[in-house]
Design goal:
The structure is a single chain. This protein has about 250 residues and is an alpha/beta fold. It has a domain at about 5-90 and about 195-240: Rossmann fold (3-Layer(aba) Sandwich), CATH 3.40.50.300. It is about 35% helix and about 25% strand. A hairpin with a 2-residue loop joins strand 9 (about 215-220) and strand 10 (about 225-230). Helix 3 packs across helix 4, helix 3 (about 110-120) packs parallel to helix 5 and helix 4 (about 125-135) crosses helix 5 (about 150-165). The longest helix has 16 residues, at about 180-195. Bound molecules: adenosine-5'-triphosphate. Adenosine-5'-triphosphate binds next to strand 2 and helix 1.
Length: about 250
């Protein structure tokens, strides 16, 4: 990686993604510029279909842009080879999805350590780090459970542990609480707040204003473009708890 002092962790310039041709052509992302600083939590909101997931996929190298540039930790990534991009996805970016995307036949600890093994860590190191992370997300006692024996909130916490295991420059979360009830939502939000407090750079796509309220910055998207940007005071669990209405 290049010298990253002062560089945003994530940068997009005139980022575009179009689908289809002719009459059916659709600009899912239509010229997005953004910078996310180290340690910042950014929330992205907007109506269904406005391009939020597409934007996140472009930023995380899950999808190729039709135009524009993506920079991660000082390096341009949109023009990398498939092989280099795959390595980057494994090591520099942590993804959290709405539907968790856990391997059903693997236990919680195996799901978490798999990412470290794929990134080339030794089995012993991968297991140790996976166990530490499960402890950090409050699931030390569920390490040997299969996903089917975990609640939605617990599954998402396993997914967050998995996203963190290779110490990514940024965690990209796409509707991380979209499948969760209020109590589980609060658990996952607390976890994101802990990550934020620990200096993890985070970008969270959400429909949930409570999540957005915990971010440093809220970006609003419409028809493939960022139409508004608001700097927030940054969330705390206490404020969040009050918002969710589940705490004193
Ligand atoms: N692979 C694809 N092929 C064609 N069109 C697509 C594809 N993926 C997304 N789109 C279209 O691009 C637009 C943006 O989709 P995207 O999933 O990014 O929106 P979103 O804001 O994340 O929506 P939601 O909030 O409902 O998840 C939509 O109109 C969608 O139908």
């Amino acid at each position: 990686m290049s010298d990253t002092a002062g560089m945003p962790v994530l940068r997009a310039r005139d980022l575009r993604k179009e689908y289809g041709r002719g009459e059916g052509r659709l600009f899912a992302v239509d010229g997005v510029d953004l910078d996310v600083a180290a340690g910042e939590t950014v929330a992205v909101m907007g109506p269904s279909g406005c391009g939020k997931s597409t934007l996140l996929h472009l930023l995380g190298g899950l999808d190729r842009p039709s135009g524009g540039e993506v920079w991660l930790a000082g390096d341009r990534i949109d023009d990398l080879s498939e092989r280099a991009l795959a390595r980057l996805r494994r090591t520099a970016i942590g993804f959290v999805f709405q539907s968790f995307h856990l391997m059903e036949e693997l236990t919680a600890v195996e799901n978490v350590e798999l990412s470290a093994l794929l990134a080339g860590r030794s089995p012993r190191t991968a297991r140790r780090k996976a166990e530490e992370l499960l402890e950090r997300v409050g699931l030390a006692d569920r390490a040997r459970f299969l996903p089917s024996a975990l609640s939605g909130g617990q599954r998402q916490r396993v997914a967050v542990a998995r996203a963190l295991i290779n110490e990514p420059a940024v965690v990209l979360a796409d509707e991380p609480t979209g499948n969760l009830d209020s109590a589980a939502t609060l658990d996952v939000l607390r976890l994101f707040e802990d990550l934020h407090a620990a200096g993890q750079t985070l970008m969270i796509v959400t429909h949930d204003a409570r999540i957005a309220a915990t971010a440093d910055r809220l970006m609003t998207m419409r028809d493939g473009v960022l139409v508004d940007e608001t700097r927030l005071t940054g969330g705390t669990t206490g404020r969040l708890g009050a918002l969710v209405g589940l705490e004193d």
